[in-house]
Amino acid sequence: MADSKAGPQSAEELTTFVQSMLAQMQSRFQQMSDEIITKIDDLGNRIEELDEQVSKMSDREKEDETK
Description:
Layout: H1 11-66
Keywords: Coiled coil
GO molecular function: transcription corepressor activity
Family: Belongs to the HSBP1 family.
């Protein structure tokens, strides 16, 4: 006996089902990829800010040593 919830029954239904699944996977992958790129960009900006702060602190320290 075939279960009606077993999935696609014909080759056409199977093709449509697989295409739908692939489209969903591609959409999810693109969303995750975009989120990762955004987080990497944010981390890059934070690193640049920290680098600037460290440079300023180093410059102040050098100025204090010369006084």
